[in-house]
Design a protein that fits this description.
Keywords: Signal. The protein contains 2 helices and no strands. α1 packs antiparallel against α2.
Length: about 45
């Protein structure tokens, strides 16, 4: 499961680098990642 999180983080980083001019898109992806990570941690704890 942790591997998936790492892969997703790396994907977000790559997309962020590819869309340096499009900060809103990067912010949206970062927000999505944080939301997914939060849900993931909650799922682990429950």
């Amino acid at each position: 499961m942790w591997v998936l999180a790492l892969v997703f983080l790396q994907y977000v980083s790559l997309v962020g680098l590819n869309h340096k001019g499009n900060t809103s898109k990067y912010s949206f992806l970062l927000l999505s990642y944080l939301q997914c990570r939060q849900n993931f941690i909650v799922a682990l704890l429950s």
